[in-house]
Design brief:
This protein is α+β, with helices and mostly antiparallel strands and about 220 residues long. The chain has one domain. The chain is about 30% helix and about 10% strand. The chain is built from seven helices and nine strands, in the order ααββαβββββββαααα. Helix 2 packs antiparallel against helix 3 and helix 4 crosses helix 6. The radius of gyration is 18 Å and the shape is elongated.
Length: about 220
């Protein structure tokens, strides 16, 4: 992440200084860079070279044109990118692409769903950027993009901090009687997942996997 920022490939849009703050769109861009710059295999097992930086920059330019107002508590279009660096937007998997006259008919090896759960080769697991858990949501314009219990302003980070302070789940339930216990369970599960992600050293090709927006700044990466 820091190397990409220093090279001007993707500079964090909220704060480029320490502590760096990454927006929701930045996180999608970081996933795109990482995926496109990895060598891959086609269905026959032949090596596919990493995508050239010109195409990577093209994808980032297209991503910057997305209207984040399309995302809401209940609706969030799927964002995908192909190996050639073309970003496509769809209302649902395999639906007609909004604003582009083609169908998402490529195979899974040819398209990355930027908002789906993300696994890096280093072992980091990033959550779904729309619905990180059944009772959680991430909305770019709400709470700075921090994961929260659906239709509330209760962030998973706040619930995770209570658990880390030694408060039992039963006590947390009692603190928030208006919140369903399974929603609190979802929040704590997400926070545990992020805390377990490895902390790779800063190198020429690090990977960002965090929640979203300001939430990324306190994530598992230096």
């Amino acid at each position: 992440m820091h190397w990409w920022a220093r090279q001007g490939i993707l500079v964090p849009s909220i704060s480029a200084e320490r502590v760096k703050l990454w927006s929701y769109a930045d996180l999608m861009g970081l996933r795109i860079i990482y995926w496109l710059r990895q060598t891959k295999e086609d269905p026959e097992g032949r090596e596919v070279p990493r995508t050239r930086m010109l195409a990577v920059r093209q994808a980032l330019e297209q991503l910057a044109e997305l209207d984040l107002g399309l995302w809401s508590e209940d609706v969030g279009p799927a964002v995908r990118v192909d190996r050639g660096g073309t970003v496509v937007l769809s209302s649902a998997p395999d639906a007609e692409v909004v604003g582009r006259q083609r169908m998402l008919d490529a195979g899974a090896d040819d398209l990355l769903s930027v908002t789906d759960p993300f696994l890096s080769s280093e072992g980091s697991r990033g959550p779904d950027l729309l619905r990180p858990r059944p009772q959680l949501r991430i909305v770019p314009g709400k709470l700075g993009g921090s994961p929260h219990v659906v239709h509330t302003r209760l962030e998973s980070q706040a619930l995770g901090a209570l658990a880390n302070s030694g408060l039992s789940q039963a006590k947390i339930y009692r603190l928030y009687p208006q919140v369903a216990p399974d929603a609190i369970d979802d929040a704590l599960d997400l926070e545990r997942q992020l805390a377990q992600n490895p902390r790779p050293a800063i190198a020429a090709s690090p990977v960002c996997e965090a929640h979203a927006a300001s939430f990324c700044a306190r994530s598992q990466f230096p």
